[in-house]
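Troubleshooting log. The previous structure file for this entry was overwritten by mistake, so regenerating from the original sequence record. Sequence copied from the archived sheet and checked twice against the printout by T.R.
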Amino acid sequence: MNRLDVEQFDSLLSALYEASMDNAHWEDALEQLRALFSANYVTLILKMPDTQDEDDLGLMVSVGDMQDSGKVVYFPYRHNLTPFVNQPADKVFTEEDLMTPEEWHESPYRVHWCACNDVYHVMAVDISTPDSGSLRFRITRPESSPAFSQGDRELCHFLLPHIRRSLNIRNLLDRSQTLGSLYSKAISRLSIATVLIDENGQILEENVFAKEILESGDGLKIVGGRLEASYPSDNRELRRLIKEAFERKSAEAEGKVPEAMSVTRPSGEVSLGVVVESIPSTAWAEGKGQPAAVVYIRDAVGKSQASNEVAKKLFGLTPAETALSIQLSNGLSLEEAAEALNIRRNTARAHLRAIFSKTGVRRQTELVRIILNSVAPLGQGDQEP
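Regenerated output below.
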């Protein structure tokens, strides 16, 4: 096996695990592998194109003398041309294992795809991952360079577990971030304001609804980077709830009902509802600056974010009936809704009778309840800060 000294190994592992945390670091990791194997290109194919969809593109990161070197990019790929398919997972192979030198030299894949990039010698392996199938790893050299040796193969095989772990960590983080984003969007669609606070009580992040509420200063506001209530009595209670959330340990927080309070609004509108919930921390993540609590805020007089299209499909309503239902769920009377929609009152009453018949309710209050408690708000477009 080719010699790999401790410093090289440490640098390469550091680069691989940095890449697992941030795709921008793949360039460093692959460049080190390129130097290690005296290669002209090193490529990691993260996703193969769908052969049934001509418009579907693959996803890869590659380093070498090319445009977008080191960046994760989409790419077209002639899957039916490449001879490097259907190989056993985690087995390092070269073009010499698949065909004779003459066959490789005349191969349409080499002629049309490799020769123009001065690619001749190829060492490859399809790396198996727990959740993403096989990811294709390719190292190449020009024809003027020596073919890959047995030592090169052994070194590549030695490094496979570390590359696999890096890719697996990347996949897990991507999934976690995607789920976190999905849940955050769902909360926003339900018109729930959220504020994330660190151990120092400073606001780290707020969603679009929280930003609107805090900017209005009607009940809650930001003072010196901290969340505060408009009235001293409410502010003392808010500080108490947040302080308790900071002091809870992860074991104590588990299963404990979050604290809640009502915040009076100077405008005279219905009070804001506030829930403060501690975020459990592990023994590995103690220290200042760590997120410690999330503050949920609900404005009872805020307008429903229910999607017209989704509500229409859920209840079998016409567009006009759906529009009226949404206005009523926003707290308008039938007369106010008719005026807002620019329709006659008798027309609104006719729509309401049809809505009652289709939804099976008998009173306007029941209609508002089923609209607000339905999944219609989750069909609303994303709310961006």
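The first strand starts at residue 41 and ends at 47. Archived copy saved in two places this time.
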